[in-house]
Amino acid sequence: MKILIIGGGGREHALTWALAPSATVFCAPGNPGTAELATNLQVDANDHSAVIDIIREHKIDLTVIGPEGPLADGLADSISNSGFRVFGPSAAAARIEASKAFAKDLMFRAGIPTAASATFDDRDDALSYIETHDEPLVVKASGLAAGKGAVVCKTRKDAVAAVKEMFEGRFGRAGSVVVVEEFMDGEELSVFALTNGEHSLLLPCAQDHKRIGEGDTGPNTGGMGAYSPVSIATYELLTTIRDTVIDPTLRALAEDGSMYKGLLYAGIMVTPDGEPRVVEFNCRFGDPEAQVVLPMARRMLAEHMWAIAAGEAWTPKPVDYGPRAALTTVLAASGYPDAPKKGAVIQVPDQIPEDTFLFHAGTSLSGSELTVSGGRVLCATGLGQTVADAHRKSVALAESVSFEGKVFRRDIGWREEARAGTS
Ligand code: AMP
Ligand code: GLY
């Protein structure tokens, strides 16, 4: 089988690593990490006909779309309308991520547990709503905003400022529609389901760490590290999430004529009384969560993706992932997230120890030198019998890489280690 992966970040390197044993892999554009396992092709994912040309030229059997941008832009539709197999939802189904207004409306209609909210295309209406609702509040740009479009506001005053900024264009068109919602207390969980729109298979859960600083302090980022599994995600809780969130969402999408095929990511808040409520949906694997979930669940991935893309009969059985854990530490550039400094030369050890993986995210080659080319540069993943064991391996690998201004958190997985009494 020949697989084309669209994208070039840490998630796509992890996808390449996971799929390479089952297929000949091409990446567009990929990165220096994927180049070690696959053939990188310089194609712009915005140019659908150029993507279809390379699918024809390289006789690609299956295209896997990594990031949300091309999905929201209808790349999966263009590929399937040209008669090729693709793993990833249609633009209509990807609205579950690309339009928070759409996602909230669907959740309310289908009775899916989530924060109370209202959607506005008029600034003054949003400001009046804030006046009559309790703080804290969360203000969100409805459209895609690279993970930065949600502002948690402790006070009504902060919420007013956030609404004004959004309507003044802080997030461009993504903020022309704004969602104001109730703040939910609790612990977050990233839940991943492979689905053909009818059936779903849950992968191991993960927990992301959005803040730049240790102890979850400082500004939000795309994610500074993740681990899996998460012990609060018990069999009972996951069954509840499948029955009250994943399956009803898929049914509601299908009833709307937007059958969802691909990977559905539910960001869940587990409230202090143990109830799961949806924070958001994403239409693709999380990044950096993929860098822990895929090392845990690589077996059969290509077969599942193929069956879903080909529309074959697919009734997946729950998988026992065994007593294993994975943890990834993101190495970021100095100045990330606001103004990451690019260009530093990266030194990587010749030998990567057993049970560790170094996934490339924002790297490029300048001649023979590996250099920093993005905010999140590399992801150091460790696999172990426990989260603490995986953590040690991940941090040791993170320390063994050097580049000027390297920033990373040493406390990824702190909640889990506190629960296990190992921190
Ligand atoms: P989103 O872009 O919707 O994923 O939001 C980004 C982050 O903001 C989430 O991962 C949460 O940490 C936080 N957040 C979003 N909505 C809420 C909410 N209603 N209550 C509490 N925290 C939230
Ligand atoms: N790590 C969060 C995301 O991928 O959206």
Q: What name does the CATH topology of the largest domain carry?
A: D-amino Acid Aminotransferase, Chain A, domain 1
**Total DSSP E strands:** 22
In CATH's first tier, which class of the largest domain applies? Alpha Beta
Largest sheet: 5 strands, parallel
In the CATH hierarchy, the architecture of the largest domain is 2-Layer Sandwich
Strand percentage = 25-35%
Low-confidence stretches: none
- Would you identify the CATH H-level superfamily of the largest domain? ATP-grasp fold, B domain
User: Could you say which overall geometry the principal axes of the C-alpha atoms support?
Assistant: globular
Q: What is the count of DSSP helices, taking H or I runs of 4+ residues?
A: 13
Summed over residues and divided by their number, the pLDDT gives a mean of 96
What do you see in this structure?
There is one protein chain. The protein has 423 residues and is an alpha+beta fold. The strands form six sheets. A five-stranded parallel beta sheet has the order 3-2-1-4-5, with helices on both faces. It is 31% helix and 26% strand. It is globular and about 60 Å long. The protein has four domains: 2-88, Rossmann fold, CATH 3.40.50.20; 122-176, Dna Ligase, domain 1, CATH 3.30.1490; 187-310, 2-Layer Sandwich (D-amino Acid Aminotransferase, Chain A, domain 1); 325-420, Glycinamide Ribonucleotide Synthetase, Chain A, domain 4 (Alpha-Beta Complex). The model has no long low-confidence stretch (mean pLDDT 96). The protein has helices spanning 10-19, 48-57, 68-72, 75-81, 91-98, 100-110, 123-131, 156-167, 235-255, 290-296, 301-310, 387-400, 414-420, and strands at residues 2-7, 24-29, 39-40, 62-65, 85-87, 117-120, 137-141, 150-153, 178-182, 187-195, 200-202, 207-208, 211-213, 217-220, 225-228, 262-270, 276-282, 325-332, 356-360, 363-366, 369-372, 376-384. The protein has 13 helices and 22 strands. Residues 147, 208, 223, 282, 286-287, 289 line the site of glycine (GLY).
